[in-house]
Design goal:
Helix content is 51%, strand content 23%. It is α/β, with parallel strands linked by helices.
Length: 136
């Protein structure tokens, strides 16, 4: 069974959980995962900046941080800055839900072992994100 929990920890924005739960489940099923526990946590810029500094030693804002906890069965947490998603959505002229969906998919791909450290890896992740977004 794939269990997906969504936590709204952003101080002002509340989003429906179901579309994001479905996105995580779709990516994991595509990745042949049969058992998983994934938690998606929506936070603000300041919280994700704090986490980026504390856990990754990066002193800059980011949109998503993924923490794999266990491999078998798969367990992980995906933290998403709603503030970054809103800004990026504005820049791309897309709705907040679409940008958050992309970030949820991106974080889930990280749980499956995908990385975005090089241009080639980023292109592959973007291609997969686009593929999953078209299925919605």
């Amino acid at each position: 069974m794939i269990q997906v929990d969504v936590v709204n920890a952003h101080p002002t924005t509340r989003l429906q959980h179901k579309p994001f739960q479905t996105s995580v489940q779709s990516v994991l099923k595509w990745g042949k995962v049969k058992q998983a526990q994934v938690t998606v946590i929506f936070v603000d810029d300041q919280e994700l900046l704090r986490m980026n500094r504390e856990f990754l030693n990066h002193n800059y804002f980011t949109d998503v941080i993924t923490f794999p906890i266990e491999d078998d069965p798969l367990e992980g947490e995906i933290y998403i800055s709603i503030d970054r998603a809103r800004e990026q959505g504005r820049e791309r002229s897309i709705p907040l839900y679409s940008e958050v969906s992309r970030l949820v998919i991106h974080g889930t791909l990280h749980l499956l072992g995908y990385d975005d450290g090089t241009a080639t890896e980023r292109q592959e992740m973007t291609r997969l994100e686009d593929q999953f977004l078209q299925k919605r």
